[in-house]
Records
---
Amino acid sequence: MKSICYMRPGVELIDIPEPEIAKPTQVKVKVAYASICGSNIHTIKGEADDHFEEVGYREGMPIPIGHEASGTVVAVGSEATVKGLKAGDKVTYYYNFYCGKCYFCRNGQEQFCLNVVSDSCGAMGEYMVLEEQQVFKVRDDMPLDKACLAEPLSVCMRGIDLAELRVGSKVAISGGGGVGMLLLQLAKLSGASLLTVIEPVEEKRQIALSLGAAFVIDPFSCDAVGEAMRITGGLGYDAVFEASGAKAACTTCYKILSRGGFLEFFAIYEPGFEFPLDLSDMWKREATVRTVFQSPYMFPRAIAALDLINTDMFICNKFKPEDCMQGFDAHLSGKPVKVMFDFTTD
Amino acid sequence: MKSICYMRPGVELIDIPEPEIAKPTQVKVKVAYASICGSNIHTIKGEADDHFEEVGYREGMPIPIGHEASGTVVAVGSEATVKGLKAGDKVTYYYNFYCGKCYFCRNGQEQFCLNVVSDSCGAMGEYMVLEEQQVFKVRDDMPLDKACLAEPLSVCMRGIDLAELRVGSKVAISGGGGVGMLLLQLAKLSGASLLTVIEPVEEKRQIALSLGAAFVIDPFSCDAVGEAMRITGGLGYDAVFEASGAKAACTTCYKILSRGGFLEFFAIYEPGFEFPLDLSDMWKREATVRTVFQSPYMFPRAIAALDLINTDMFICNKFKPEDCMQGFDAHLSGKPVKVMFDFTTD
Amino acid sequence: MKSICYMRPGVELIDIPEPEIAKPTQVKVKVAYASICGSNIHTIKGEADDHFEEVGYREGMPIPIGHEASGTVVAVGSEATVKGLKAGDKVTYYYNFYCGKCYFCRNGQEQFCLNVVSDSCGAMGEYMVLEEQQVFKVRDDMPLDKACLAEPLSVCMRGIDLAELRVGSKVAISGGGGVGMLLLQLAKLSGASLLTVIEPVEEKRQIALSLGAAFVIDPFSCDAVGEAMRITGGLGYDAVFEASGAKAACTTCYKILSRGGFLEFFAIYEPGFEFPLDLSDMWKREATVRTVFQSPYMFPRAIAALDLINTDMFICNKFKPEDCMQGFDAHLSGKPVKVMFDFTTD
Amino acid sequence: MKSICYMRPGVELIDIPEPEIAKPTQVKVKVAYASICGSNIHTIKGEADDHFEEVGYREGMPIPIGHEASGTVVAVGSEATVKGLKAGDKVTYYYNFYCGKCYFCRNGQEQFCLNVVSDSCGAMGEYMVLEEQQVFKVRDDMPLDKACLAEPLSVCMRGIDLAELRVGSKVAISGGGGVGMLLLQLAKLSGASLLTVIEPVEEKRQIALSLGAAFVIDPFSCDAVGEAMRITGGLGYDAVFEASGAKAACTTCYKILSRGGFLEFFAIYEPGFEFPLDLSDMWKREATVRTVFQSPYMFPRAIAALDLINTDMFICNKFKPEDCMQGFDAHLSGKPVKVMFDFTTD
């Protein structure tokens, strides 16, 4: 089958063997859409090459990538009977398969599962074979390009859960990419006030306003901290989400945090980046700093929340699998909120 | 000054002495709007008569009522300097003045303040004298009829806080009065899914839909429990708010609660009403039952949230103070979401 | 093998087929100790007879019972490799096997798992075959009679978690049986102050004092509510756990609850018992009422907490399996904190 | 009256005017005991000199210090009637007086009160005049040296509240001074398992063991991180409290944190110290980093918790006020858990 693979360097559409159901608990899915996550960029930049070597990929071997996809069930294993799945069902999926047995799974912390299987097969190919646990049915009338966003939505929802927002909380978001635009909508859905997006790209600021931001700040053309303090009457924001991945943005985010506020670092930063946390300031600010890793226990709510989210700007940049390079280039241009590969056309 | 007073029985617009600043920490406010709360109805039905006798009201003495109002500052005591209030400022108020010293105030539970002063002067008169603690400035461009809703909004926000909603939580609200319609909007602002309002009055169901309900149920013309379970795919709601005050509705609310769900009794029920809690069922359901009493620590966020709330249907039923009987009759008809008295016209 | 079975009516030690590993994910355990839970009494009173008929038990068929046990691994399935279990390991177990796939498991609510397998084999027999998920290794030097208490400890810990205790919270416990005595110790371990146990049996009150209760109340010889309010200076308790199963105790527990307090009904009450919740009183009290069903995600912490718990009074009432009637009679006498069957002697 | 004052440089026992009740809401207290807090050391090192200049202290003027004390009521203002205080009552106090009116007070965040009065008079003198809000009665049979510890206990309790400990949580504490030893006891009171104290002073490690630590680590003579990971079976601690103020300890604390764990920086670090937070590591660890500033809403529970705390090692280093230099030197030696000045002897 065709699969977009990481080739060390670069990505290509490659023919690889079609996966087949190997255990009775598995389900085979024909992929409809698969989208690019910012972490894929870190991968194709080579940051995970050591890991790939370790798990057995030799030079020249294609490495299937991607972990955001939707599609249609084509086969169901004999013991995959819990969810009532059958051929033809529209589904989305979660890329992590948790063991359910280890210390962390038994402790209610699946995100740290010691036996997690995360990357058995990439999402950017024609077919995937998944454990039934990972497959989630969506409504028959749910468009599959929208359903493709369940995974990024789930992890953003977890970030919102952990920030303990309440109606009227003042919220700022740094970065208007896919994650930022989901966090924006989720913050709005959580009753945020003075909802502010900090983003240098003009088009993305306009999209942010159309998705519910009350304010946007261009950090390249003004003093972002000053502007943020002006918006909040000098109090700062109750919660700030850093989703740009830029070092300078981290400092801005910390400075615009209200006393008693939450700061969530949501992006993947360059390896080894250390944020200098001023402990004297932090003490008086009584802040909380958090990160979010994976999204366990979230999919039922994430699927319910798909209906609450405007995904128009997430599904309007589709590329054919054979144009995968153009798709990645478009993502790297920084303009699209989300880039998606369309596997529905033959 | 003119004041709408409870006369045991009935309400009348009565001339009573205008209150004056008696302590340097006080602020005098000219009332613009004052609205009817369901609890006022309990008062004029005589349910608090014993209390009034106890605190010194003799037969025939007018009893000022009301605790939801907005207005304009007319005088500021010499020690009321914390909030920068000055004559002409638009304000709203919270009817409870907390002592800040007792066990509960020091324990972070102002709502149980042992020295609370709640009803020094009713809100339904031309002037109020308040402690600075109770007075909250609103933006200059905030309409005062909207600002009048800060108190009911604050208590509904507290109810929402205590229900631990998350984006995607399934929520139902029983009763489409002022409280129900605020809870509805706050639940929507909290990311509720399958948001359902149960309300027998057709006009109110229409308003509920216009304010964001995804479903409405008429409990008089259909099997409300069956309908609710159909909407939720047999799972029930994660949070149910009972805001109708009707006994039968309490049972419905319990039955449509999901496993692990929250049930909040938000109305004032007839004195002595005991809800029969089936402990065997409750055990398997692992439900949480809560009530909400007052709204301490809420006003800064409530005022921020005024901008997030559609109040059109709350401010469209205004009466002149001299037509107070008609105003109360309108409330009792069950049609208006909210009834308001307009003290701005001379 | 020998197994204590419910015979409708009565319990008997019966010869039943020894279970064998049927799936590669399973583990076989030789039981050392199995203890009586209050819910077993409900079973042998016939309250679950309809259920047993439904799942296929015909008249006269022995029904294996029990869900609290410890023992030694005797065989490990070829795919039961996550926990490093091997023959000879000391273990305890959790009687529920969760599917990990259904709506509730994926929603972080294993306690409501739609495919839970709870009673494949009773704990009160010589051998059990369990899924690896259910088996938990304990330290080599952990006495197995103590390890037998992991399950009741886990469910009490969940009750304590849900009550949101903080150091200095005032806590009362109604009922000094196994559950009450564990709640007592856990409340103490949570920093409870004025820790009070309400229990009519003199011996149990003495044990409660020895395990850390600051006060005990005999509800049969004094006005329990009055006494509780005296102890708490009129404020009542921040959290009250009802673990006696007695109807009258439920009312006492409600009345001694502080404003803003938590009331947890922890016992199994007679089918259909409805606790009359006075909504007017509840409103002013702003109480929270909860129940606790099962103990998902708890075993790693429960096993850690075994070291923090004094179990002397839980392991001092041991009976031989062939004396099972005497064991149950001892439990029914209300004197022992816990009754245990010893399967270690041949 | 005699008062231990900061003299820029050094401390001296100085005669200063005795404070008198100036407002009817105030209470005058004769001090019995006053203790040294680590923050006093920062003061006498000159770190707050700029602040003192700003608020009007000229060179040579004595600056009263201290904020931990107990004593006896000697006079009560005419409006200080809420708490039933009368001359002769044993009391302790909280050094912050909150306005109850500003944004933060109304938002349930007294710790950020914009009008807080924190240092009207130092605690290390013969008399204090306080607002009734700040004065807390203790039981008649409570020793006043023990009562002197209410304030440090209150702030440690707040730190424990914010760390969301549960029974069985694995906890480590870095630093065995007054704060560390209170955190240790509170962690134990919260059901901590594998409770570990990291402290270089042998005497303090012994005290830690006597107060309930299960393990102690000398960071100067062994690999503290390796030792901590050995104790926790490689998992790390669910919560780590840094209370030593040492830079190197901060790094150790971060490294021994479990996945999903809480790290609280509890000490005051040298001005400008920036802790380098490795965001890549932090992401996978999904940690929470917090600080604790002040202890609002805590005193009722802190006073209840005095009975739960062993204070023997806190009250055994008493100095006469005239020996204040020796007292501070003793504190600086690092040996005593707490140093206290005894104002009870004439």
---
Amino acid sequence: MLGHLYDKQDCSAARALEIVGERWSLLILRDAMFRGHTRYSDFMKTLEIAPNILSKRLSGFVAAGLMVQGEDGAYQLTEKGLAFKPVIMALTAWGDQWVGPGPVEFITKDTRAPVRVELRGDAGEVTDLARVGVKPRD
Amino acid sequence: MLGHLYDKQDCSAARALEIVGERWSLLILRDAMFRGHTRYSDFMKTLEIAPNILSKRLSGFVAAGLMVQGEDGAYQLTEKGLAFKPVIMALTAWGDQWVGPGPVEFITKDTRAPVRVELRGDAGEVTDLARVGVKPRD
């Protein structure tokens, strides 16, 4: 029980969700990261999303520093945006395992070998998720 | 460009988001996993959530197999629900790094040593996120 550790929603997961807190945001990031989408029209083609919602989400990502918009109108992920990759990968891995295998696998681009999201301890040891808990930050 | 690999939203991330596709769902799972919440009243205390939304989300998790409800009314995470832990951890790590350090750290319960979400290749090597791409599943 960590009630006193959190000031209501003041945890990093909650603050991350303030930026990407719904389904479309995560699917837009997915397509930017793994399909190389950079243009409004790219996202419109693959996401069945209302145009006004897409515009709002892309502007939101620029405002939050996850994307920059070039003079040519293209949206490019920043380092902050690219850093969201493990979240999308963990979400995909869960879906692959618990809903059903999806159409793609994650690989290292140069070697084409599989890459996975793993929980690892300080010495690099694999840690079972049942063993993972939380403590107050030092 | 993977347009032809995905049938619109038919990827595992999209299907995972159909189950936990908005902010409250992820915060409810967070509190179940890391604060040990099991009761409706536990979640009401820590989440500023409308009662009808909380009821709907908890019922949804039971229907989707992420939680079971005992005879005493308590909600317990199933293996499928617990398997969502890396998603919450990756989301928290992103917030810690890019929004600001949150109040908790992830640890192995028995040793109290830190645990992190890492991207690892087949030989266990750490893989930089810029190198990660996708290929069609074999």
---
Amino acid sequence: MSKIIDIGKKSIDDYVFDIIVSFQEGIDNVIIKGYGEYISKAVDVYNELYSRLGESIELINIEIGSEKKSGRLKSYIAISIKRKY
Amino acid sequence: MSKIIDIGKKSIDDYVFDIIVSFQEGIDNVIIKGYGEYISKAVDVYNELYSRLGESIELINIEIGSEKKSGRLKSYIAISIKRKY
């Protein structure tokens, strides 16, 4: 099971907490997705998560590109991570 | 030959222009590097470059992490691209 965490206005710690709870609920793969100005925060969330969970998560893939969102092209990042058992 | 383009306050187009000039000067690999708030802009620069040069560039690697900069840990992205001939 996988889940997309869409990064927005909540705090970095809130997203980290959401991801840890998702793992506890049995989600194996999480995609941290940030658009536009939230790309930087998506990387912050990954780094904070890594500093808390370390080797028990694995970075699977990083994708960057642009997508239409609300009618205009926006840059995005999608950071795929996996929980290791 | 490779070159690091450190993303800061200049416009997206300025960085795209710097990279195109670097390729014309014989640089093969460029690393677009952005710290903190400039991570989003680094992705914008890549997307803009891709929309201009398309298939003549290749995305080699994307690295994310955190590094000490000015005495404190900062998130970064390093987007490695290669010119194709």
